[in-house]
Design a protein that fits this description.
The structure holds two protein chains of two kinds. Chain A is an alpha/beta fold. Helix content of chain A is about 35%, strand content about 20%. The relative contact order of chain B is 0.14. The chains are: A alpha/beta, B alpha/beta.
Chain lengths: ~170, ~425
């Protein structure tokens, strides 16, 4: 069980406001990317987010462009867990591959407010917030293995390091 | 036991298993993988992984299309890194600045065929449903993994069935159908799903119109979209293809989670208002809204018929606002030049730019100023999409965009079609 401060958003938030398209070919370092996280959605976010904070969103979080900075921008800014009523499919995959835990939990974003604290029990698939307990589905073993490795790159790094030795 | 959907069959085949069902997670070996201006960033991830050479360079395509010709030194540097990488890895299917938009170019080159699986580092990869392939978008890291290993995990999605019946009226297009679907069901209406089209309308759609439906389904949250390939598709591919193929079709008793039916025979022109593609109303409810820029192009509506539609509306008229026309490929531009379409557009006051994505995602060649409204034939009008969050974007068919350019305000194209 761990405690996390929330940044709460609504439905259908798209990646053009999570990380504007005009930066996708020009900003490269984690610091630069983090500085523009959620720029088109919430100008307070990048300046005030702290490591361990979580995003709590509504339906279809991360719709639109497939750009990975939609995940890496909040991640580089300190967010390792994103909770949403539902995710756009590419965004969900990008989370797994970047080592960010996507939690599908409908109803949470209307019960908590930005700044509230919630408790997350990843091992048991439970969230405690606003005096209620929410259960969330665990990931399939093969997908969990990517997340456990820290993402797709670290997982493949191990595989190719093994191949290069033999 | 019920039959199989298209997506269950296509992913089973690409994973080398005898059958698959919705919910299965498969290691899929796609027939083609592709990326664009994001290839230099993907290369950096590939190198970080520790891989040396691509697993199947002959099944990799790279197209420079997102910011072409390079608008800044940074973009030029990005392109230069990609060219170096293409040479180093021996990638044959490399398409230079000006060849066109990845989805259009790969279609013209017949690099993907019916029944096959294509994964692209671009969200509009659902596009390839037009020829009966499974097309889906993936992230950059996934593309790096695909370059390195030639395979990727995919969850077999549940499917929804979209039945289209009847014939479209003149001046109404597949774009109006796709906007109506978004308007009826919302941008999450197809979330995680395979959207599989059927119905007699499909055989009335031309080659250039077919891609519009699966392309726009990316805005629907769909994983992929499918149109049953017909003779229009087979004839087009016959002269271009370099390998054999076997089309796949869903079984008649396949299980669909959702059934949606639309009779298109009475459909009116549709328009998406700012700032979401599902904020769709009948065109008649938006007539007269002033615009400062009109844009015809993109992977959605930048093909020859789209330019022809614009020319049919614009012939003999002058635009009252800026009209930017960007053909989807060099082949489209060449054919439009030969047939006189480009001349008609220029005479009406349009400007023509290099084939590519243009201002669609706010890179260059038609970025609006704050508070300037644009009407566009693209597929996405999210806040900030065209570069500034203060610029409203309307989405409609090329007919509607052209008519609106004449009036400097949203207008009905049927007034200009004799």
């Amino acid at each position: 069980m761990s405690s996390h401060r929330c940044w709460v958003y609504g439905d259908n938030v798209n990646t053009d406001v999570i990380f504007p398209g005009k930066y996708t070919y020009t900003l490269k370092t984690p610091e630069e990317i983090a500085a523009h996280a959620l720029e088109g959605l919430d100008t307070r976010f990048a300046a005030n987010v702290r490591r361990g904070d979580v995003i709590v969103a509504g339906q279809n979080w991360g719709c639109g462009s497939s750009r990975e900075q939609g995940v890496t921008a909040p991640k580089f800014a300190g967010v390792d867990i994103i909770i949403a009523a539902s995710f756009s499919r590419i965004y969900f995959r990008n989370c797994i591959n970047q080592g960010v835990l996507p939690i599908v939990c409908p109803g949470l974003n209307v019960l908590v407010q930005t700044g509230d604290s919630i408790e997350i029990d990843i091992a048991n698939g439970q969230i405690q917030a606003a005096g209620q307990t929410f259960n969330f589905p665990r990931l399939s073993p093969s997908v969990q293995a990517i997340l456990d490795a820290g993402g797709l790159v670290p997982m493949l790094q191990r595989r190719f390091a093994g191949e290069n030795q033999t | 036991m019920s039959g199989k959907t298209f997506v269950e069959k296509a992913l089973a085949r690409a994973a080398g298993v005898s059958e698959a069902s919705a919910g299965d997670i498969l290691d899929v070996r796609p027939d083609l993988i592709f990326s664009h201006d994001n290839s230099a960033a993907i290369r950096r991830i590939f190198e970080k992984i520790g891989a040396k050479n691509m697993a199947r360079p002959d099944r990799v395509a790279i197209t420079l299309d997102h910011a072409v010709p390079a608008p800044t030194t940074q973009h030029a540097q990005n392109h230069a890194e990609i060219r170096e990488w293409v040479k180093q890895q021996g990638i044959q299917h490399f398409f230079e600045v000006g060849r066109g938009i990845c989805h259009q170019v790969i279609s013209e080159e017949a690099l993907i065929l019916p029944g096959e699986v294509i994964l692209g580092a671009d969200s509009h990869s659902t596009h390839f449903g037009w020829l009966g392939a499974f097309g889906a978008g993936v992230g950059r890291t996934e593309m790096a993994a695909l370059w390195a290993t030639g395979e990727l995990w995919l969850r077999v999605p549940e499917a929804m069935h979209v039945t289209l019946t009847g014939c479209l009226q003149p001046g109404i297009t597949a774009k109006d159908i796709s906007l109506r679907i978004l308007g009826d069901m919302g941008v999450e209406g197809g979330l995680y799903r395979s959207v599989e089209f059927t119905g007699d309308t499909l055989n009335t759609l031309s080659l250039d119109e077919r891609p519009v439906l699966p392309n726009v389904m990316a805005e629907f949250g769909a994983k992929n979209a499918f149109m049953p390939p017909n003779d229009v598709v087979f004839n087009y591919l016959e002269a271009r293809r370099t390998r054999d193929y076997t089309p796949l079709y869903p079984d008649p008793d396949a299980h669909y989670e959702i059934e949606y039916t639309l009779d298109v025979s009475e459909l009116e022109p549709q328009i998406a208002l700012p700032h979401q593609p599902d904020n769709v109303v009948r065109l008649s409810d938006a007539i007269g809204e002033p615009i400062q820029q009109a844009f015809i192009g993109t992977c959605t509506n930048g093909r020859l018929e789209d330019l022809q539609a614009a020319a049919d509306v614009l012939r003999g008229h002058q635009v009252a606002c800026r009209l930017v026309v960007i053909p989807a490929s060099s082949q489209v531009l060449l054919e439009a030049t030969r047939s006189g379409i480009i001349e008609t557009l220029l005479m009406a006051g349009a400007t023509i730019a290099t084939p590519g994505c243009g201002p669609c995602m706010g890179n260059h060649m038609g970025i609006p100023a704050p508070n300037e409204a644009t009407i566009s034939s693209a597929n996405r009008n999210f806040k900030g999409r065209m570069g500034t969050s203060e610029a409203p974007v309307y989405l409609a068919s090329p007919y509607v965009v052209a008519a609106s350019a004449i009036c400097g305000a949203i207008a009905d194209p049927r007034e200009f079609l004799s």
